[in-house]
Amino acid sequence: MRTSTSLADEAGVRAAYAAHGAELYGFAASALGDRALAEEAVQETFLRAWRAAGRYDPAIASLRTWLFAILRNVLIDLIRARSVRPPLAEAESREAAEPEDALERAMLAWQVEEALRRIGDQHRQVLIEVYYRGRPYAEVAGHLGVPEGTVKSRVYYGLRALRLALEEMGVPG
User: Which of 24, 79, 96, 109 is the most buried (most CB within 10 A)?
Assistant: First the structure.
């Protein structure tokens, strides 16, 4: 969902929160494993977005993408703050490292999903079938009613388009 909401005023922040708050909260709660801390992360995200509203450029990224980038930074800050406290036991120390790994995995999954939305339908379809569903080229070709070579070609060019979309989003390679 793209929105051209301006975060420069209260109405714009409310509209952005209505459009993206629940999704941001779900991501934060999943990454942090703590609902109260997730609420704090979302509040901090919108506060930072409001303060930096003048730097938001819809030509570079959607508001949703920009808010998720801010949320990622907030989550990293919260996880680091948590890890500064001395652990009570070795097990707690291991648990402190796991949320950061989970955050990175979740963030990467979200970024790939967003990049998949930006490539062509035919490329997206074969990438999902081959990579996410693990279907062989021949099976995908039969399902789509195209030659197997066409599926292989779409996978090749789909991966190139996906890599480009990720680069445009600023995802490191």
Answer: 24
d(CA 46, CA 49): 5
Question: 49: which 2 tokens?
Answer: 């977005």
Query: What pLDDT, in 10s, does the model give residues 19-50?
Result: 999 999 988 988 888 888 899 999 999 999 99
Reported as a single tens digit per residue, the pLDDT across 77-125 is 888 777 665 554 444 555 555 656 777 877 777 888 888 889 999 999 9
DSSP 8-state code for residue 4: -
Range list for CATH 1.10.10.10 in the chain: 119-173
DSSP structure class, residue 130: I
Residue pair 95/102 in contact by the 8 Å Cβ criterion: no
CATH 1.10.1740.10 fits 1-110, yes or no: yes
User: What's the rounded Cα separation, in Å, for the pair 27 and 44?
Assistant: 14
Q: Centre a 10 Å sphere on the Cβ of residue 16 and count the other Cβ atoms it contains.
A: 24
Query: 96, exposed or middle or buried, with CB in 10 Å at 0-12, 13-18, 19+?
Result: middle
